[in-house]
Design a protein that fits this description.
Number of strands: 30
Distance between the termini: 20 Å
CATH architecture of the largest domain: 2-Layer Sandwich
Number of helices: 18
CATH class of the largest domain: Alpha Beta
CATH superfamily of the largest domain: Bira Bifunctional Protein, Domain 2
Strand content: 25-35%
Bound molecules: adenosine-5'-triphosphate, magnesium ion
Oligomer: single chain
Helix content: 25-40%
CATH topology of the largest domain: BirA Bifunctional Protein, domain 2
């Protein structure tokens, strides 16, 4: 491509709306432009990279035996009603009506559509297993679109869905996808980890994420270098402490803590460290809750009215909901963080997790939030994290405004609670696989593979006849890749202060050809034109900077754009029959004979 004929501008300044480096560089290099919040246009250089990513994905999917399809972006509501997701999916699902007032959705994912195809096409076990995939636009009305194409509303996904007769076949299909994904991300030269992941609301057996390691990543991953363990922090179990809880030594004592609501404020007021405190989070329970939670609703409802009358914090709507909802207390050590994914799986806890409203908390405890503790929480189910349960003589809220308790002991001052794993693992925790401590890394989820089971095939009645002629509901796997997100993730991992440094296999061009003083030197022009032809004829993709620009401008743009290999043609070099080469990561240039250009570059491409 001739840069003189390319109309897109690069930007010197960092756009202020871009928080992460990949977003900044994609805008500055002119790869993408924002059209609306979370909706982007891909411009020629960006699209070249995107197409290369797609090609690698397509090649490995084809190699794994998957069959490419193209499913519609607009899907009829009926299919979503049949699966139950018309009701389950929140505002992320973009619904629309056609001129006949019929309901449709803009597909955020395609389980329904593909299962509908499968139930119509697949009749016999002889047609199984099969894996259908597509590379296609998705729309999700994300709450917080951000980081450019990393978390967009409209984005391209490679999604694949496999159909199987039995669990062994599903497991084999899943493994084949893990292998294919591993090859793809290796070919893109990304530093990634395959991490165990939560199977979410869908349930199902196995689920792993492909996480590109980057400090800006939205996901926290627990990694143990000693034993190879890697899991999303959402899922990584925090093992109970191995040492027994110490015996109580201090007397129970009430302390006035005016205005001290946060752990830091309480620590300052009481004179302890956060590891000596517990925090008590009140969340919504389920009606058929664990323990006494469900049974105590009516008793608390009376409190609710009474308390609300005495304060001005509770509105009528809050009180109505306080009457309806049983509550659960989650107790954590002061320095630990609640893991919502773990908590919402506990019996009696509402899923998705919902924190109680201030009115609900006051109604249940008689105290405003900030002074809540597990002692004297009548009628509320209490789950304590293993680490909180291992404390003796701890500090907690007194369930009374402006007061805390110290010297509190499980068993002595309050009943033993239910034990649970409620917290995020932290750096230094023991690896669940047994080998050494965990460390926490940040990752960008670029792929997700998942043994779905029968959720959709059952709902949509996708069955085949087995060998004995019995009707069997098919098992499904689903496998996603964030195609557009990969471009951003690759930049997060490959850049410096001057710009992008693309890995060769996904760079928009292989080589940038930079002639100096092109407009004045017929010799430079002749050689550069010839090189442009020669390299292209050899299958090497060349970006030819034939603009009438100063060398500094050309070099800066080449570095911003991130093409890995740079060839400079100058009068001075040519006098010695030489060209100048520099890799984007190298500190200095080297000279080599002009006649050897094609072999020289070819030997350096890492495709
Ligand atoms: P996330 O937790 O990041 O929201 P998800 O679990 O919703 O991801 P899946 O439904 O498994 O994602 O989608 C498959 C892949 O699509 C993800 O692994 C991710 O790479 C990509 N993806 C998901 N949401 C977005 C988005 N808003 N913008 C860009 N890519 C996305
Ligand atoms: Mg999501």
């Amino acid at each position: 491509m001739l840069l003189s004929q390319y109309p897109i501008n690069t930007l010197k300044e960092t756009p202020s709306e871009a928080e992460v480096v990949s977003h900044q560089l994609m805008l500055r290099a002119g790869l993408i432009r924002r059209v609306a919040a979370g909706i982007y246009a891909w411009l020629p250089f960006g699209l070249r990279t995107l197409r290369k990513i797609e090609t690698i994905i397509r090649e490995e999917m084809d190699r794994a035996g998957a069959l490419e399809v193209l499913l519609p972006a607009i899907q009829p509501a009926e299919l979503w009603q049949e699966s139950g997701r018309w009701g389950e999916y929140g505002p992320e699902l973009q619904r629309l009506k056609d001129r006949h007032e019929r309901d449709f959705v803009v597909g955020p994912t395609h389980e329904e559509v593909i299962t509908d195809i499968a139930r119509r096409e697949l009749r016999s076990y002889r047609q199984l297993p099969v894996n259908f995939y597509q590379i296609q636009l998705k729309f999700r009305d994300e709450v917080r679109p951000r980081f450019g194409v990393m978390r967009a509303r409209e984005f391209i996904m490679k999604d694949a869905y496999s159909f199987h007769l039995d669990a062994a076949s599903l497991a084999a299909g899943y493994d084949a996808m893990r292998v294919a994904y591993t090859k793809m991300f290796q070919r893109m030269r990304l530093d990634f980890r395959v991490v165990q992941a939560d199977t979410g609301a869908i349930g199902g057996n196995a689920s792993e994420e492909f996480q590109v390691l980057a400090s800006s990543g939205e996901d926290a991953i627990a990694v143990s270098d000693a034993d190879g363990y890697a899991a999303n922090v959402e899922l990584a179990p925090a093992l109970p402490p191995t040492t027994p809880r110490p015996a109580p030594r201090e007397p129970l004592e009430r302390i006035a803590t005016p205005g001290a609501r946060t752990i830091e404020q309480v620590c300052a007021a009481v004179g302890v460290t956060p590891e000596r405190c517990v925090k008590t989070l009140i969340v919504a329970g389920t009606a058929a809750g664990a323990g006494g939670a469900g049974a105590t609703g009516p008793a608390r409802a009376a409190d609710a009215a009474g308390t609300a009358g005495a304060t001005d914090t509770a509105g009528a709507a809050d009180i109505a909901s306080a009457r309806a909802t049983p509550l659960v207390a989650l107790v954590l050590r002061g320095d630990h963080e609640l893991n919502a994914v773990k908590a919402q799986k506990l019996p009696g806890v509402a899923n998705p997790l919902r924190f109680a409203l201030p009115a609900e908390i006051e109604a249940a405890t008689g105290s405003p939030p900030g002074f809540i503790g597990p002692r004297g929480l009548a009628g509320v189910t209490i789950y304590a994290d293993h680490a909180a349960l291992a404390l003796a003589d701890f500090v907690c809220g007194a369930n009374e405004r402006d007061a805390h308790l110290r010297g509190v002991n499980w068993g002595r001052d309050l009943p033993e609670p239910l034990a649970a794993d409620l917290r995020n693992v932290i750096s230094g925790d023991p690896s669940p696989a047994g080998g050494g401590p965990l460390r926490i890394a940040r990752g960008i989820e670029v792929g997700h593979i998942f043994q779905l089971g029968r959720k959709y095939s059952e709902a949509l009645k996708a069955t085949v006849l087995d060998e004995a002629g019995n009707s069997v509901t098919m098992l499904m796997g689903c496998y996603g890749i964030g195609v557009t997100r990969i471009a951003a993730a690759a930049i997060e991992q490959n850049h410096d202060e001057r710009g992008i440094i693309w890995p060769d296999p996904i760079a928009p061009f292989h080589v940038v050809l930079v002639p100096l003083n092109l407009q004045k030197s017929p010799q430079v022009r002749a050689v550069a034109d010839a090189l442009y032809q020669e390299l292209q004829a050899a299958g090497i993709e060349v970006l030819y900077d034939d603009r009438d620009e100063r060398p500094g401008v050309k070099f800066a743009d080449a570095e911003l754009l991130g093409v890995g290999h740079r060839l400079v043609v100058s009068e001075r070099g040519l006098a010695a029959g030489a060209l100048e080469y520099r890799h984007r990561r190298a500190g200095a240039s080297e000279q080599f004979p002009r006649a050897a250009a094609v072999e020289f570059i070819r030997a350096r491409l890492q495709l």
